[in-house]
Amino acid sequence: MEKSKKEHRDRLVTLSLVSILLILLYGPAAEWFVAVDRILYDQVAAHVRNEPLADAMIISINPSKRSASEISDTYGQIIQRLNSLDVRRIILAEPPDSDTTAGLPGRAATLASGAPVFVPADSLYADVATRSGLLNLNPDRDGILRGSTMWNLRAGIMTPSLPLAIALHDPDFAADPRISSSDVSIFLTNYAPLPRFTALQFLGGELDPVTIQGRTVFVDASPALVGSAATLPSGQFVTRSEIVAALLANIEQHDVVIAPAWIKALELLIPALVCILIVLFLPGRNRREIVLVTVVAIVSLILVGALMLLVGRLRLDIGRALVIIAGAGALCWWLAGTGKKAAINAFKRGSDFLAAGRLEPAFAEFRRCAPSEAVASAMYKLSLAFEGQAKPERAEAVLEWMKRTQGESPPTNRLSTRDSDGGIPQRLGRYVIERKIGRGAMGAVYLARDPRINRAVALKVIPIEKEFEDEELAEARLRFFREAESAGRLTHPNIITVFDAGEDKHLAYIAMEYLPGVPLTAFTDPKKLLAPRKALELCARTAEALDYAHKQGVIHRDIKPANLLYNRKDDALKISDFGVARLTDNNRTKTGIVLGTPMYMSPEQLNAEPLTGLSDLFSLGVTLYELITGEVPFKATNIAVLMTKITTENPAPVSNRRPGVPPSVDALLFKAMAKRPENRFVNGGEMAAALRSCAKYAST
What we know:
By secondary structure, the chain is an alpha/beta fold. It has 5 domains: 2-42 and 260-339; 56-252, no CATH class; 355-406; 427-513, Phosphorylase Kinase, domain 1; 519-695, Orthogonal Bundle (Transferase(Phosphotransferase), domain 1), CATH 1.10.510. Helix content is 45%, strand content 13%. It is built from 23 helices and 21 strands. Helix 2 (30-45) crosses helix 10 (287-310). The longest helix is centred in the middle third of the chain and has 37 residues, at 319-355. The two termini are 43 Å apart.
């Protein structure tokens, strides 16, 4: 119910945001949204395929140190010579600036005879030229020229643009129906350069007349780059002649980039559709899914816009939709984080209530959490606690919740006979044993299943009556259940959850959370070591979990790689065997051998002194040493020598034994394995912080 309420709230918040964005989209912030699209358009524009104007060239007059009359005279000489060479057409995109009496010699006769001459409609030569058209260069607010209208209203008459007027003069030209509408604009992308020659080269006879015949010739007084009149989306600086050449090439080759009416309708529809999809599908997802969906949506939209421009030569404004997706995605990501934080707090409160025996408040808090293995483990423990309080109906309610939210685990093949090497029966208590998955110092570990909810558990089985004499058995049994109860109060993401403990068929057992994975002993082989940074990070997680356990008054007493389980696929680490080590601590087998693993024990543990959580930190230091180097810091051929080394010798530095291990790790290990507890880290939290600080400088 809590999850449903949160999702409903997030949906309302997201709806409010996208509604505001839609208002801004076509309101006061419209120009900002347009700017986003312009940036995207410019990135693709340079790659749009454009062919240069066929059989065209530019003859440019150098205006430096020339008067207006000299430039006008040069124009006249060039036009007269072009007429004699039988060119196809002459285009003056930027005619000379002269009054009505000066200028081209015999202006009217020159322009009216020979090749057709085209000039802008606002020039002095419009009345005597063959044809004229408007050439309005209206760049966007950022100074980039991206579009040009094909038709312009002038003195109450629809007048074609200069490029369109030039194309329409050709009787063989078939107009593209896409540009017949009066409100259609052609969008500029990039300029395919034309051959450019100087007036001196042309008038001086350096050009072969044969190569000029039948060509379209642009004449201007604007040299390339220095005479540029605008900047294209591709970043090219172009003159007026080059702008007309680019537009004319697109028109005559039926290769224009336009945004027809249906595209404009689509630009209105896409943001609205995006808003609907965001409100429906983003709220309620976790952060990873939100990032994935947002990135996929943004990339997909960009690809659609790019393909329409590159292949269909259609300009689609996607800037508005992208801003909406990015803004709504960021909001949903933040909302998911607040939900995750609330769930973490709820899980912590539920764990505290469970540890204090307040089961109903614990159930209420756990129901606020998103389904996960940790929550399922805590709920499983809660159902057992309800059974212990003789409240089977509440236990059933918890189990029913688990089935609805977690689902049921698929059954696996079960044993039909006793265990081949230990005579373990098919069942212990209510648990059905399936297969052996490990063996410890005092017993085996089995994969079992709780048939009530078909849930897999790890069953630690100890033949308690075989390990203790009759006079010690009662005390051992009492201590076993007391320690199992203490461990059962621990609820932490990095600690294997203890669900249940019992005794059946003269065997003591502890039912624990099952984690598919391997102990860290798999990574103590010198040939299979973890990266130093990963080893430090895993030990930091262990230190944090130990800090939590110590604050609950529980000491592990047997920290070593074998008791640290790691699932590499999920990057999950958990400490196992809480509640077991105390049973073996300070007790001897019938042969007098100390149980446990002495090479990981602290000096005070070997000396049978009272233990604190600092003993676990010493053992964790030994574990880290082995994970980094592949061997333990203290080795000996017999227990007496080993105990002497642990209590008197300092560990050898590790930074010079393996590349990628910073020297700070030596100081950390020296402090963790200090002989006196008061010289070690104050607690696991402090050690975890030091481990992560070292990890920043370790190799990966």
